Amino acid sequence: MRKQFTYKALRSAAIASAVAAAAMTGATAQAKDTIKVGVVSFLTGPAAGPFGVPGKNGAELIIDAINKGELPAPYNTKGFAGATMDPVYTDEAGGNSKQVAEYRNLVEKQNVDALIGYISSGSCMAMAPVAEELQKLTIMSVCGTPRLFEEKLRSVVFRTQGNAVGDSIAAARYMTEMFPDLKTYTGINQNYAWGQDSWKFYSLAMAKLDPASKASSNPQFPKIFSGQYSAEISTLSLDKAKVVHSSFWDGDIEAFVLQALVRGFFEDKKFVSVVGASAVDSLGKKFPKGVVMGTRGPYGLLTRFDRSRPLNNWFVDSYKARYGVYPTGPSYQYAKAVLYYKLGMDKAAAMAGKFPTQDEVVAALKGMEFESFGGSVKMALGGGHQAIHEVGYGITTWDKEKKAPSATDVKFYSAECINPPEGTLAADWLEQGMPGAKC
Amino acid sequence: MQLLITILLDGLTYASYLFIVSVGLTIVFGVLKILNVAHGAFYAWGAYASAYAITYASDMEYADWIGFVCIFLAAAAVGLVLGMIIERVILRHMYAQDEVLIALATFGIFLILEDVILLVFGVNPYFAYQPMALLGRIPVGGISRDVYSFTLMALACIVAFSCWWGLTRTKWGKLISVVIYDREISQAMGINVSMVYLIVFVIGAGLGALGGAYVAPTLSVAPGFGIDVIVLSFAVVVIGGMGSIPGALIGALMVGILRAVAVHKMPELELFVVFAVMAGVLIIRPEGLFAPAKARTI
Prior knowledge:
heterodimer, A: alpha/beta, Rossmann fold, 5-stranded parallel beta sheet, 17 helices, B: mainly alpha, ABC transporter involved in vitamin B12 uptake, BtuC
């Protein structure tokens, strides 16, 4: 009798444990009405106006549209695997230590399901290890340093924006094709990962594409957000180099343009800006004509009026109607990251036949190819975690009819033309002369 | 020679900017013995007020020279309003407290004022380039230079002369010197020390605001504008000696010229040079180059 009782008790306990375990496991995979996602961008500081707020607006617009199922087909299914997203907008300003604390707060106290965002390469490099430690899905939307995936493969970190390698090679290709007579170049780039990488890859690409070209021995690397460039403009003006390369962004590009413009700098030098299109929009007619301008992808200035497709048209029109201005690069980049998350959630849910776990979403996101607002995106590098896409450049002008800034001589370079193949370090690929580039 | 002229002018431009923003800080410390971290906020408010007024004047299609009027009015308004409110409402109740506590209070004021900027002006940058564009450029040393930077140098000279003249040639200057020497004796002699403190604080705030207001046309005036400048101002003031106006002038010149040399000859040292100068001076003269002599009290 006692033996029978013990057996029954053990069997009951085992069944109870199994049910409890199943319930706990199922908790992560149960259908949810709402998911909570941290959306991080600069909401204060000098980067807020030109980058952070347009980025947040882009995310906000598309989150609302997805929650209501109002995106154009084929993305018009409602929600993220059916769940409504509840975004938690968080400020990226304040330095990396603060960001690490904010990240932990979002994950451990606010229990977000994922994070989307980060503009500064410094932020991305600091957050990636924390994301890996906490094993929280993080989709980085804007930052550009290639070190993020070249130094280490990541398991839960993705980036939907192409890196500085593609931006720099595209710039070098554009300059060698459009201005073959301008053989000498110098640069002014911010003194941190993004600025240093941009200059490094532009110089490497120029050396291979035009061996007769010559880099200045005195490129400038001022502190980010320094704002005063009188001495740097003098140095660049005295330099014999005809071309000036810059990856300035945020308020720095605007301050530089204002200070350089009055000194006639843009009349003497051909200025190549990798990511200064936000300043073209903010300065409007005041922005100098003839600047070689990139947007880090098929976004904003370069595709605003020319790339007519339902998703892009919807985005431009909806954004203009809601915020009163045209979407800029960061608006597109944040919207793209949110769209990518939706596609991953939907795909994982379809494959699993239930609300997906994070592991299932990560598997679905890895290596995905999708059509975004301006063009297609392939998660082809970093083990399927790093995006590649086309990158274009054009020459700034003012469209009198539309009364808006515009670009002429726009050229786009395909993703495979400006990015190394998977498993190859960008610097090595450039040193070898970019073998296998499909242009 | 061409390079030398360029380095000299770049250095003087930067030094002028540094002097204007740091002289208010050193005056307040010299008289009130307050390390005023809120000085960066006065700078930012001056820049915002100036940029807003210039943009408004431009939108109303007033002549571009009105922009210069806007700059000085904005600086005066910010100095007067913020300076008076902060001194009368907060600082006057704290003079008996420890200096560290007062510094922390001004840090709090700085943070509040920075956030109020976001509420009042939003996050989008302001571009008030009209005064700089109006003056155009001239060729000097083989390159074009903006005339506006020469007016910045002239303004720095006027501020330096006004400070010297005001402190040494006027009744109020002598009163301030007496208060610096001994507050209690001054009070016993019938000097309205409270009023002296208020006037000096308003002047300091106005000079900080003037720095921001005058450089606003050259910059993208955006949130976080005052953070870097407070670090630079402290470096200049520490080099010259806390509370010394000639010290602020020499400190600004040293930093400005050496930074310009670094930018032209060794750009990788640009970040380092300001603080290298500060460290070097502090090793040799911990009280700074021109720290005012302290009175012995028995």
